[in-house]
Amino acid sequence: MADRVVTVLVKPNSRKGPLVEPGPDEVLVIWVQEPAMAGRATKAAGELLARYLGVPRSQVRLAAGATSRHKRFRVSD
Fold first, then answer.
1. Tell me: the pLDDT tens digits for 22-35?
2. DSSP character at residue 27
């Protein structure tokens, strides 16, 4: 089994969220209500991505983009 990388665009402080929608170029757009402060939006995005993919949160790890809205998460199978 191989890990897969999921590219996301996180939209923090959103009234629209929590929500995940497919975006352009195989990117998932994730709206979260948490602010982009102290990693809160990143943590919320990881939790929401895990629910969206139907995997436990422990199988979703941030691979790149800790301080960016563009992030890559590694999902274990």
1. 998 899 999 999 99
2. P
Contact between 28 and 6 under an 8 Å Cβ cutoff? The reply is yes
* Helix residue spans in 1-77 (DSSP H): 40-53
Report the distance separating Cα 72 and Cα 66, nearest Å.
9
Backbone torsions φ then ψ of 36, nearest 5 degrees: -85, 70
Exposure string (b/e) for 28-64, b if CB count within 10 Å is 16 or more? bbbbbebebeeeebbebbbebbbebbeeeeeebeeee
How much is the pLDDT for 11? 96
| Distance of alpha carbon 69 from alpha carbon 33, whole angstroms | 14
Question: For 33-68, what is each residue's pLDDT tens digit?
Answer: 999 999 999 999 999 999 999 999 999 999 999 999
